[in-house]
Known about the structure:
By secondary structure, the protein is α/β, with parallel strands linked by helices. It has 26 helices and 29 strands. A hairpin with a 6-residue loop joins β28 (914-918) and β29 (925-930).
Amino acid sequence: MGLVRKSHVRSGDYLEGMLNEYVGGKAKFKAHKSPSARLVTALTCLQFAFAVYATFLLYYMSPAIDLRSKPDFTWATRFAQHWKKLMIPAHVVNHYQEASAVVGSEITPFNPVEVCEHEKIDFEQKKSNDAQMIKLKTDLYREVLEFQSKSLGTETLSELMAMKSKWDLKGPTRPKVTVILNHFKRRTLCAQLDSLLNQTLPFHHVWVLSFGSPNELTLKRIVDSYNDTRISFISSSYDFKYYGRFQMALQTEADLVYILDDDMIPGTKMLQILSHVAGTEKYMNSVLGSIGRILPFRQKDYTFPSYRKFRSKEAGLYLPDPAYGITVDKIVQVDFLSSSWFLSAELVKTLFIETPFTFMTGEDLHLSYQLQKYRDAGSFVLPVDPNDKETWGDSEHRLAYVSETTVIFKDIVQVRDDQWWKALSTGYVTQWAAMNPQKIDALFYAHSVKEVKDLAPLLEKFRSTVGKKAYIVVSGGKHCPCEDAATALKWPKSVCRERRFKIFDLGVGALSGISKSEVPVVQAVYSSMRGLIKIHNPSVVITVSDIDPHVKKALKMASESNSNATTLVVLPRATVPKVLWMADLRTTALPNWNRMRISISIITQNRVKSLTRLLRSLSNAFYTGDEVPITFNMDSKVDEATIKMVGSFDWPHGPKTLRRRIIQGGLIRAVSESWYPASDDDYGLLLEDDIEVSPYYYLWIKYALLAYHYDPQVSLPELSSISLYTPRLVEVVKERPKWNATEVFKHIHPNTPYLHQLPCSWGAVFFPKQWREFYVYMNMRFTENAKENPVQIPKSRTNGWQASWKKFLIDMMYLRGYVSLYPNFPKQQSFSTNHMEPGAHISAKDNVVKHDKTDFEVPLLKEDFRTLLPNGKMPPASKLPSVNLFNQPVSLKGMKAAGAKLGQDVLRCNNVTEIVAVDHQTGLPMACAKF
C-alpha cells in the first residue's frame, strides 16, 4: 500500500483521506464472502488491530504533543514519529512551537529536575561584636518577654503543641490550608514546592503567583513540571505588588491561609505546627509567623525614633535577630510580621477595611494594624526547636534574615516610619503602648476646623496647667486637615509630622453636614478612638455637643470601652470658655463629670411675674450638656396665669414635670415634699419663684460637686448642701447683725468659699443622702407648736420659728455637724438672689420681723467667677474656712462636739464623743458613732 501524498493536500486532510480509504478497504474485505472460516477470522482480527493502532497513532501525531521530549519507550512512539515526519511538514511543527512560546509554552517536562533553578546563598550571617548594642537589644527583648509572660503568658513550642486544638493531623477535623507563594525574580520556587510537598500536614492548594515578573514563563514551566492538580499558577502582566497575594487569598475556600515570601523555605513540620496553634482557643484570633518586628519605644525627649535608628534601644526589635544572638524560644507577640503570615481565611478580609497608607510597601504592618484595630487580633512569632530545622519557618535561616543586616533605601525607611507612626497615632496599641500605659487628663476630638477653634481655649488651659496632659484628635481628610487644625490652634504645621504625641489625624475624611450613612463614620471614629483611649487612658474625652450625632455615638462607645473609666464630655460651644476650671480638677475627679444629676424643683403658686423672671434666668444660664430635669410644684390655690405659664414653658435641657396639690399644703410641705432623690447621684435644687439665678449658677454647682464631693482624694462627709446665695445678715440671732464674708476671710483670701452650718433656703442644692436623713428626722420631730420641739439650740432665734421646714434642717445640721458650702465674692455677688416679694413669710400678717430688702437682695454674678477665686481655682477642702450656726469660726470637729453636747438628737449618745449615725439609703438612724 503506497503512502504517497500530493504536495498541495493539507496534512490533516491527507491523513483523514488515507484512513477513510483504508477503512473503506476493510469494509470491502469484510463484505467479501469466503467459504473459508479461517480467512474470515484472520481478517476480523486484523481489522480490530488496525483500529486500535489508528487511534493510538492519531493521538501521537497531534501537533500539541511534542514527541521529541517524550522518552523513546515503545515501537509505537518511533513509528508515530516516522509517520509524523512524513505527514506534517517542518514549517507546521515550527509554527506550533512558536505559538507555544508566545502563550507561555505548552511544553511540559515530566521531571522538575530539568527546569528547576536554585538560589545559591554565599551569605554568611554576620555576628555583631558591639557589646553595647548586644546588651541594648537583649535587655529590651528580656523586658518584652517578662511583660508578656505576666500579661499574656508565653509558651515554648512543646507547650504550644500540647495545647488543645480544634485542628487535627488526621480525621475529619484536619484543616484545609491554601499556601500562596508570590514570586518575582528569586530562584526558590522549587525549594518551596519540595518543602510543601513533604509537609507532615498536606496542603489543600498551592497558588503560585507571578505578577509582572520577567520570569513568568520559567515559573510556569516549573509549576507544570510538578504535574500536581493541587498546585496552580496564576499570572498577570500587571504587578499587583505586595497586596496582590492577599487579594488572591480572599478567593480561597480553605480554612487557613499561609502566605509566604519567596525567601522563605519552611521546614516540613510548619503547616502542622501553624495549624495546631491556630486551632487553639488562645491563638485562634491571631496571625502567626516566623519573623516579626517590635516597633520603636518612646525616647527620653518624648519623641519616637526611626525603626532603623542605629545604636538605639528605643528603635525596637527584629525577631529573631541572629546578628545579636536573639532567638525565639517562646511565642512572642510583635507589632507586625514579615515574610510569612498564617491566619484564618476569614481574617484576611480585615486587611482591606481601610485604604492602606501606600500600596508600594508596608502590607505587613497594615495587616497587623487592621487585625488589632477591627478584630482585636494579635500578631505572634512562633518559637522553634533549635535542634530541628523542620520546625523553622525558614529552614535556610539566611534568605530572609539577611535583609536586616543590609542597607534599606532611605526613602523606603521614611515611608515605613510614616506608616507605623500613622498607625500608632490612629489607635494601634504597639508593644511599647501595652508595656507603658499612659495616663492623660483629656483627649479632645474635633470633626471640623470650627470645632477645633471652639475647643481651643479649654485645650490650651489643660496644656498650660502644671501637671496636666491633653491631646487633640481631628478627623482629618478634606473636612479637618491636620495642618489646618494646627493653624487654628496657632501651632506650627510641623506638629503634624513630628513623631510626638500632641495632635492625632484619624484620616476619617470629609463629612458634609449630617452623614447619610452612619456605618463608615461610626466604624472609623470608634475603632481609632478606641485604640487611642486604650493607649492614653484619658480621664475625659471632650467634644462639642452639636457634633455629628453618628460621631458622638462612636465617641460614646469608644469611651465606654475603656475599663479604666473614661468619660465622654459634650460641651455646648458657648460653655467651653466658661469651664476652664475643668483643668484645675484632679485627674481622679474628672471621670465623674457625668455622674451627678441636678434636679430643679420650683415652688410656685400665684406670682406669675416672679416665676417668669426666674424661668428667664434659668434659660439664660450656661449648662454643660447634662440632662437637667425641671419640676413645677404648685399648691391647690395656683392661679390660671401660672398654670398657663408652666404649661407653655419650653425646657430644652431635660424633662419637664408639673405637680399640683388637691389640698393646700402650705410652704412647709410645698418645699420639703417638692423633691426626693432618685439615687445617690441625684441632687435637688429648690427654688421659690421669687428667686433669680446668675448665668453661672449651674457651673458653680458642678465645679463645687466635682471638687469637694466627687474627688476620691477629698473627704468631706460633713458637706450636705451647696448654697447659691451669700447672706448679708446673721439671721439666727435676735439682733441680726451684718455679715460680710469678704471682710471676715480677707486674711485667708477675700473671695474664698467657706463652710457654714446654716442651710440656705434662697437657692441651694441639697445632697441626696442628707435629704433622706432630713425626711426621717423631720417626720420624727415635727410639731405644729414650735415650743413643743425637743430641740432648743442655745441663743438661736430659730427655736421659735413655726411652719418652717428650714428650722428642722437647721436642728439636724447642728446636732450632727453638717455644713453647707457658700460663695464669697466682691460686693456679696451671688449665684442667686431673693427679691423679697410678699408670700408665706415676707410681709405676712403674723410675721413681726421687718425685712429690709437691701439686707437680702444681693447682686448676681454676671462674669466668670473662676478668676475671682484664690489662685483662680477652688481651694483645697482642707483650706476652706468654717463657721458655725452663729457665724463664729469653729472647726468641723468643734461643730460636732457642740451638737453632741446638746444631746437632743433622736438617739441618746455620749454627749462628748458621739453623734447619731444613719443609714444613708433609708435615712433611718442606726447607732451612735464616734467623731
